[in-house]
Amino acid sequence: MTHEMGSTALWLMLLLGAYHGINPGMGWLFAVALGMQEQKGSAVARALVPIALGHALSIGIVVVTAAVLGMALPQEAIRYCVAALLFGLGIFSLVRHYHPRWVRMQVGFRDLTAWSFLMATAHGAGLMLLPVLLGSRTVEAADHMAGHHHTSAAASPLAALLATAVHTIAYLAVTGLIAWVVYSKFGLAILRKAWLNLDAVWAAALVVTSVVILLM
Amino acid sequence: MALMRPDPTFYPSPGMAMQAPAERLAYVALLNAGNNGQRDAMGVVDLDPSSSEYGRLVGQTDFPRGDNELHHFGWNACSACLCPQAPHPHMERRYLIVPGIGSSRIYILDTKPDPKQPKIVKVIEPEEFIKKTGYTSPHTIHCGPDCIYGSALGSANGDGPGGIFLMDANTFELKGQWEQDRGPQQLAYDFWWHLGHDTMITSEWGTPNMVKDGVNPELLLAGKYGHKIHIWDLDKRRHQQEIDLGAEQQWVLELRPSHDPNKAYGFVGVGISLKDLSSSIWMWYREDRGKNGKWAVRKLIEIPAEPADPEKLPPLLKGFKAVPPLVTDINLSLDDRFLYVSCWGTGEFIQYDVSDPANPKKTGSVHLGGIVRRAAHPSKPTQPLNGGPQMVEISRDGKRVYFTNSLYAPWDEQIYPDGLKSWMVKLDADPNGGMKLDEKFFVEFDGLRAHQVRLEGGDASSDSYCYSEAK
């Protein structure tokens, strides 16, 4: 597998997973709210499963699509497309505060999966992973040109799935840990102080990433 | 503008909001009544007891027009921004959304550059309001988890149906009607919600055409004014249930749901009963907590009319030889413990302990104004007052209560035909029950009539919460 995705890329996937996990708007806060609604810690744990699933679906669709397109299209085209998407989304998020409309608080497994999918997609969570995959493909390509070994283009979607899995594990670990600590130890008062505007940081990260891709 | 940390006036739960610092300023809607050349305004009253201007009007923003009939208004953002579904905690509580039910105009005021002199930054003209929402007479404003919600009394021609409209919380663009399916609902007035139960509640007064020329005795005696509440799916925007309080229960007005999002009950005041002129407070509640649990109501409190000398009554009431209490506003403290009730007719202001909501206990009473009583304020004991307790607001910590005395210009004239003189007072509330007028706080407004009060940083009717207290 390391042929398809280097260990640097794996670490980056883990880091991005953790980063997505920290964001209150993309998981743990809803889990905590549901725990408070039912007055049960088990409700927090139960909510994490569909939340992780929805996140994985959103990420998975984006990275697998990109990988499949990557087999058909020249890598340059993919790079420019991804850079443009990231740049556009980043600027849009900086200029205009947008969040998908979702009002319902009494949610079942399916609702929560859909919610998590929607939030991850709207935040461009999957797009944020693409540079890492593109980066690892660049390394592959360089290796390939140097004649070190042969990589099959068809391995890419598999790498994308692996990336999704690695990312989701890190995401779930972090979002679950925060949900548990906030629910059972700190309480929600911590929100008032510690909730940094990650949206602005996030948007800036999208723009920076797009520039990095272009320079790659 | 986005902040880097959450707006310090946002609180996850009502219990945390009760720890908020005391308010120092109040925003008071001031409406011009009659052709006296004055314009509507937003008044700013100093609430800081350590200030030399305590209890005085320290700022006033005049509006360009005087035909708005300003009533209720609300903030662009509140604690609902912390809700987990789509949190946006880095917005600022900064703008006041001020609708005119007389004009169908909406003013947006910025309180940040100079909190004592809010600035008008946007005006939505009636033509635009009607075009984009199909409604007229915008009334109550609440900030929701996803955008700003407002209620409106009528349709474009001033008849029914009234309903709910939406406004973008960042751009203040109107986003149209809220309802997907309004079922049998026609009349509108107040609205609020149980966020934890995905439920909206709406109440009924009358269409603009039914109220704008004063109380219509024919409509009233025929039981044509509002006497129902409506239950809606807040997310799907569909009417779910209509609850009729009985046609004799006229003017079903202010809705005060429990602030704790886990609880599923609330209180609504009814202006007048055709049977005996009494007013009443009702409780709505969910019968079971299951997904399809039906809602029900029960009458909790009945406040009787007081016999009176017809000589002292306005023409509308002479024949009845009694003063109706006319409950026109109620408010609930953030701990869901004390319910305050304004009796605009008898001039009584009552505090009930509703810790056990089904068994309210009367814990305090104060008289001020009133059709017959004309009770004076302790700071000016020889000056009889007219109007009566009306729009009431409670500080977040529940220790201070403010109210003003005007109701609705066309109705003011009928009930207080000698010309309503407007004032605002403050009470200190004992956390264990009981309340007392603050003798140092008596604001008199020259010519303009004071209506809703909003407190700096939020109050007991400005914010909704998505998180319940820990056990």
Structure overview:
The complex is a heterodimer of chains A (216) and B (471). Chain A has 216 residues and is mainly alpha-helical. In chain A, 79% of the residues lie in helices and 0% in strands. The radius of gyration of chain A is 18 Å and the shape is globular. Chain B is mainly beta and 471 residues long. Chain B has a single domain (14-455), classed as Methylamine Dehydrogenase, Chain H (7 Propeller), CATH 2.130.10. Helices cover 7% and strands 39% of the residues of chain B. Chain B is built from 6 helices and 30 strands. Chain B has helices spanning 14-17, 126-133, 208-211, 217-221, 315-318, 409-415; strands at residues 25-31, 41-46, 57-62, 74-75, 95-99, 106-110, 119-124, 135-143, 148-155, 163-167, 174-177, 191-194, 199-202, 228-233, 238-244, 249-257, 265-273, 279-286, 295-303, 306-307, 322-323, 327-332, 338-343, 348-353, 361-367, 392-394, 400-404, 422-429, 435-445, 449-455. In chain B, the strands form 8 sheets. A 4-stranded antiparallel β-sheet of chain B has the order 3-2-1-30, with no helix packed on it. A 4-stranded antiparallel β-sheet of chain B has the order 4-5-6-7. The A-B interface holds A 24-25, 29-30, 32-33, 36-37, 39, 96-97, 99-106, 115, 119, 187-189, 191-193, 195-197, 199-200 and B 2-6, 8, 10-13, 16, 82-91, 144-147, 170, 195-198, 234-235, 261-262, 291, 466-468, 470-471.
